[in-house]
Amino acid sequence: MARPLGFRRDRVVEAATRTFLQHGLHAASAEELCRATGLGRSSLYNSFGSKDALFDECLGTYLDQTLERTETILGDTARPVRDRIAILLRRIAVEEAERVAAGEPRGCLAVNTVAELADDPEYAGSMRRVDEDTAARLRLLADALRVGQAAGEVTDAVSAEGLAAFVNAAIAGLRITSQGGTAAGRLDDIVVATLRALAP
Amino acid sequence: MARPLGFRRDRVVEAATRTFLQHGLHAASAEELCRATGLGRSSLYNSFGSKDALFDECLGTYLDQTLERTETILGDTARPVRDRIAILLRRIAVEEAERVAAGEPRGCLAVNTVAELADDPEYAGSMRRVDEDTAARLRLLADALRVGQAAGEVTDAVSAEGLAAFVNAAIAGLRITSQGGTAAGRLDDIVVATLRALAP
DNA sequence: CAAATTCTGGAACGAACATTACATATCGAT
DNA sequence: ATCGATATGTAATGTTCGTTCCAGAATTTG
After folding, report:
1. Residue A137: which CATH number?
2. In total, how many domains does chain A have?
3. What confidence tens digit (pLDDT) does each residue in B78-119 have?
């Protein structure tokens, strides 16, 4: 064996994710990533290969964690479907408020990645990751909403897939709105209004 | 007098805006802006000063044009308020579909600017522009929605300001969703669902 | 304790970037 | 037709970027 790493990989990914969320992929320089993670250039490149590879790992873990939490909330079949969606949306509003309080950057890495890299063929791999995550999230939402429709608890004026796309868009809108500097109370209004759209 | 410009400034701004929308501010290189506008480096810098200044002009005209169209639609007092909001949202969905058909980049420069520059102090000036535009748009929406509430045509379960923030967030969500590659039909679903939230 | 292996810090590299300088071309006015 | 003034094309500049290299430090295994 040999000398062990002087840092915990997940902590580094966490710090790098914050940096990417704050500045985006292009504007986050290697120097800034080193400062944020506490690593030297050599350690960073030895452990992650390149800035793009580090970004991909950050994006991947971010998407996995977010999708898992969504799965947990939507999978709570004891609750009415609309309550689950309400919890999902409110959790985002709360998380954004916490970020403000902690001085951490607001917004969503997936949303910002779409905004920054959607049309860049060089990052098609990252975008494919986001697309797959979005597809999985839409599936979870549509499945839940379909159950809600069958129970008469959710409107069927729009298909379950359409409502899923709506909820997903609402989440993106919520995150962009927060990133723009909107206060927590207003985010709650957006959540309440979003939920109204689902009522029968 | 002297030699006149060999190009129309508004056309150049239009082409540059497309480039910034597609790649973002950081990833749009001077070379790419020259290619897109057909100008040489000298002409570009002589006429606009710097890449940042060009971006600011593109952003300013984009915001002005978009706000003006919003104003026109929401100011049509002959129609019910909810119809005006419906037209506003549908126009976005149609515009995004047209972009796809024309091979032009999708999404919204204002949304992407928030995603890319919200936390960068160096571009606080650009962000202030976006903030002012957002404030103006929220005012227009809230005024219209208040009228709708007074007429019993719009729900008052949420304040007019809250509903305005919701509609604004819905627009951002719609544009990000489109940028992610969602088809036009799904965008229509999102519009229909969004409108449901406003019903009394 | 020594050897093997890996990590780490700092300097250095080539490429790409935004921007500028300069010579030349082009136009309006006289 | 010529002059003044500005636009344009090309080449160059200084800087910043991502990345690599190398020497030395650290830690486990034998």
Report:
1. 1.10.357.10
2. 1
3. 999 999 999 999 999 999 999 999 999 999 999 999 999 999
DSSP assignment, residue B193?
H
Q: Min CA distance, B91 vs chain A (Å)?
A: 17
Tell which residue, B53, B175, B25, B178, has the closest CA to residue B113: B25
* Cβ of residue A6 lies below 7 Å from strand C: yes
The token duo for A40 is: 């030297």
Whole-number pLDDT of residue B166: 99
A11 domain-assigned: no
In a domain, residue B100? The reply is yes
Q: Is the pLDDT of residue A55 over 90?
A: yes
Instruction: Provide the CA B15 to C1' C9 distance, Å, integer.
Output: 46
The answer to whether the C-beta of B31 is closer than 7 A to strand C is: yes
Structure tokens at A25: 């992929």
Of A158, A162, A177, the CB nearest to B172: A177
B67 pLDDT more than 70? yes
Within a domain: A5: no
Nearest to A111 by CA among A11, A185, A50, A180: A180
What CA–CA distances, in Å, run from A7 to A45, A121, B50? 14, 33, 42
**Residue found under tokens 């897939």:** A161
Q: What is the extent of the structural domain holding B186?
A: 52-196
Residues 6+ apart with CB under 8 A from B54: B13, B16, B33, B44, B48
In 3D space, the residue among A151, A2, A153, A123 whose CA is nearest the CA of residue A59 turns out to be A123
Burial class of B65 by CB neighbour count within 10 A (0 to 12, 13 to 18, 19+)? exposed
Cβ proximity of B107 and A118 under 8 Å: yes
| Spacing of A18 CA from C9 C1' in Å | 25
At B117-144, the pLDDT tens digits run 999 999 999 999 999 999 999 999 999 9
A85-133 tens-digit pLDDT: 999 999 999 999 999 999 999 999 999 999 999 999 999 999 999 999 9
Please give the Cα distance from B183 to B178 (Å, whole number): 7
The CA distance from B33 to B15, in Å, is: 8
The enclosing H or E element of B101 equals: helix B81-102
Query: Would you say B67 and B133 are in contact if contact means Cβ atoms under 8 Å apart?
Result: yes
